[in-house]
């Protein structure tokens, strides 16, 4: 390549050497200079310590651009990320053309051709303006990047809030369903208990009515021994008129008052019985014996009788202090029981 500049080494006119020739116009003192154009004969190979250093201007420029991009990105958002580190592609100047213009330039080139190995340069930072940034009024790349980061954070927060709301709604719905299920179970249980109580009360009422009906029918088949009377000496009462406690119930009534059969049965015995006076023994179907004592007379002395039949009359025979009916009840023909309790158990009011 031809140079239009003066050579780095010159010689005054008249000082000729093997490498320089003096010719051309002269200056005021008469000295003349000439333009030095090297040729293959005059250029010798450079060896040793005079070797030219390899060019590094492309790498230095790329490193500077990388540093500026990093400062711009950090200053724009103030946010550091821990993403994976990527190596920034570097570009080297194409030195292949130097061999065409400078003789001997092949000595300064590396063995590998850097122009073929270097890939296309890529952006060193994402802090660049986009069409959307321009439309939004951003003119600074750092501010645009910061705005995008904040917008992405807002979007992520909105998505998280929406997810939280959905989870809260689902949890509330689940809790409401569980509460409704528990309420329905409680209502069903209460209804079942109420129904059971109603059935219990209905059963009790049915039993009560059945008992009333049984007693009514039983009362229809049983009768009081006297129509008009006054209760005097009671069952188990002590007194001087008898050796042990009173074994029956006394019904005081005028002498000659009709005495009735309390239930259908068979007259087992009728006649004089010592201290009992005239006595009739009526045996019922279940073996219970009814003793009618102190009678003035006996209308029926044998055979079967029905409820309400007159079998004798009130008197004061035997060990008696006045006209009355001494009534004893002996289940199975053995020991006595309280006549009033027995008659009430048959549905009679007394």
Description:
35% of the residues lie in helices and 14% in strands. The chain is α+β, with helices and mostly antiparallel strands and 350 residues long. Among the domains are: 56-117, no CATH class; 230-345, Glucose Permease (Domain IIA). Strands 1, 2, 3, 4, 5, 6, 7, 8 and 9 form a 9-stranded antiparallel beta sheet that branches. The relative contact order is 0.07. Mean pLDDT is 76; it is low at 1-24, 76-83 and 114-119.
How large a portion of the residues is in β-strands, by DSSP E?
Answer: 5-15%
Mean pLDDT: 76
User: Could you name the CATH topology of the domain at 230-345?
Assistant: Glucose Permease (Domain IIA)
User: How many strand units?
Assistant: 9
Shape: rod-shaped
Q: Largest sheet at a glance?
A: 9 strands, antiparallel
Topology as H/E string?
Answer: HHHHHEEEEEEEEEH
Give the CATH level 1 class of the domain at 230-345: Mainly Beta
Straight-line N-to-C gap: 156 Å
Which structural class is indicated by helix and strand composition? alpha+beta
Under CATH, the homologous superfamily of the domain at 230-345 reads Glucose Permease (Domain IIA)
> Helix fraction?
25-40%
Q: Roughly how many Å is the radius of gyration? A: 71 Å
Low-confidence region ranges? 1-24, 76-83, 114-119
GO molecular function, one term: metalloendopeptidase activity
Organism: Streptomyces chumphonensis
Keywords: Membrane, Transmembrane, Transmembrane helix
Region (Disordered): 182-208
């Amino acid at each position: 390549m031809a140079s239009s500049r003066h050579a780095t080494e010159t010689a005054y006119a008249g000082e000729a050497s093997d490498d320089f020739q003096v010719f051309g116009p002269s200056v005021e003192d008469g000295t003349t200079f000439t333009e030095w154009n090297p040729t293959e004969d005059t250029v010798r190979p450079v060896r040793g310590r005079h070797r030219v250093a390899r060019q590094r201007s492309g790498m230095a420029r790329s490193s500077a651009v990388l540093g500026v991009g990093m400062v711009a990105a950090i200053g724009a958002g103030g946010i550091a990320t821990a993403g994976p580190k990527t190596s920034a592609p570097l570009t080297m100047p194409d030195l292949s053309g130097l061999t065409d213009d400078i003789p001997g330039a092949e000595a300064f080139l590396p063995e590998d051709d850097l122009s073929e190995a270097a890939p296309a340069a890529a952006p060193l930072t994402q802090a660049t303006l986009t069409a959307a940034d321009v439309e939004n009024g951003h003119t600074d790349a750092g501010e645009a990047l910061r705005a995008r980061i904040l917008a992405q954070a807002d979007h992520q927060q909105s998505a998280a809030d929406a997810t939280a709301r959905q989870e809260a709604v689902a949890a509330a719905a689940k809790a409401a369903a569980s509460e409704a299920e528990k309420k329905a179970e409680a209502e069903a249980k209460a209804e079942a208990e109420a129904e059971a109580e109603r059935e219990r009360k209905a059963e009790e009422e049915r039993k009560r009515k059945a008992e009333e009906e049984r007693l009514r029918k039983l009362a229809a088949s049983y009768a009081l021994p006297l129509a008009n009377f006054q209760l005097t000496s009671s069952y188990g009462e002590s007194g001087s008129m008898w050796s042990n406690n009173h074994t029956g119930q006394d019904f005081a009534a005028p002498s000659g008052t009709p005495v009735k059969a309390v239930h259908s049965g068979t007259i087992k015995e009728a006649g004089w019985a010592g201290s009992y006076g005239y006595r009739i023994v009526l045996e019922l179907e279940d073996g219970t014996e009814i003793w009618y004592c102190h009678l003035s007379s006996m209308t029926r002395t044998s055979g079967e009788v029905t409820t309400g039949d007159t079998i004798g009359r009130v008197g004061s025979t035997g060990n008696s202090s006045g006209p009355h009916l001494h009534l004893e009840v002996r289940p199975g023909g053995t020991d006595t029981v309280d006549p009033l309790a027995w008659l009430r158990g048959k549905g009679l009011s007394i």
